[in-house]
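Checklist before submission:
- one chain only
- standard amino acids only
- sequence pasted in full

Submission:
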Amino acid sequence: MIAEDHTGTDLNRPGIIRLKQAAIANQFDILIFHSYDRFHRPENGGDEWKGLELRAFFRSCGVEIEFVDGSVPSDPRYEAAASIFAGISAGDYRRNMLEATHRGTIARIAEGKFTSNPPFGYRKDADGRLAVDEGPAEVVRMIFNMYDRERLGVRKIQVRLIGKVPSPSGATRWHQSVISRMLRGEFYWSGRHPLGVSMGITDGVPCPPIIDEAQAKRVQDRLNSNQRIKKSTKSKSILQGRIRCCCGGTWRFQTARDGKKKAEFYCRNRYLDSPRVLGGGDRCDVQRRGQNELELSVIMGVLEALQSPDHLAVALEVSLKHAEERIETYGVEIALLQQAVRDIDENLATVDRVRINGRLSEAELDAKEKELLQMKGDLERRLAELDPEKIAELEEARAMLPMIGHLLDWAETYNKPMPVTGMANIKSFASTSPPLIEQNIVEMLALFSPEWFIGEPEKFDDDDWLVTALNEFLDRLHAKITMYHDHAELEGVLPLSILLGPDNTPKNSVHAAQLPRG
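Returned file contents:
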């Protein structure tokens, strides 16, 4: 006996395939079904003949089909007609059942009931409506806070969750796609779930919000921004994925292997097997460029451009925006507590002044002072429970603001001495300056995100720290490059035209493997 739970509309279902194989091998000579609808339920009207075709196959193998309920007689004179009528009956029953089920589902959704498995963070109440499931909902809030307040990426969130927090499936393993879908789940803050929209119910079903709408907007803005900007990764080149050709093709990166002495960039349309040439187009004649030559030309071109006050101001404004975002992110949780402590200190000073003036009794003043000190102690304990690194980064980001602001004002002209206000707050981030960066300190500061100066110095232990920093800089500029025969056009926040000389690869490189270590 073969038992299966596959739909009877499919005559190529696994159970039928196994029966066919056994019939060809002459392993049985009679096939018994309980009723015709267990054998075939036509999906559409007019498909009843498919059952006859399958019965003919088994008969060619010497196998007869019998039905326990007698819905199709074994007499060959009536067998074909009875099979057609049985197929019509089975198909009509299935279609009527689906239609009734569909109407019932629409009716329940219209009443606000959830007819599917509830999304992570929710459960069904006694009436079948969505309600917040506090345990999983706390995980959802934690993921949104890590992405919004801590500015972690999806990958870092995944690493932090694995093995510590059960996933929606109950496993210890989290997938990045699950976290991304969760961050995009509009029902977490909109108050409505889109269930039933495809059935014509425009409003969906009520869904209690888990996430604050203001935080959700910040998360969506960052997600959309990350889609537009290529994120820095462990790349073999700071230009990988940024270059396109004037011919319309994309430039690829080839490492120094397979007989190649150096790593190069090239246009895919240079070759006969490229899509453009195979489609009847001309081959691209823009020459290949060595990795070191092209990278250094772009970086040196940017450094030269930053000597212009206008260009420097643009780059500094981007750094200023990043510092302000860091303050806003950490300030949501920390700044309010710090301000509350400062307010209590002011109230304590007021109590001291009143005590000196003698306007209130000592007992009243002592009670008020005790209350304020207790409140201050509670707030300071809450501050102590927060991540001290976050508090340090918040303070250092605040210290960066006046320095960047002064530099931005100074960038309007080079005729005044460079300001030094706030410079003492910048940590020494390397024993020597990068070999490529021998410019004024202002241009060097414009290359780096504020996080490089306010964060911990361990990032410089990575051999490719300079590649990472330059990648972040080009990301902030939304940099895309179009290659021509003799120059490259840099597009984005800082549009530039960079001249390219003959292919004479420099000896130095932005990669640590070819740089003297500091």
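Reviewer check: DSSP finds 18 helices and 13 strands in the chain.
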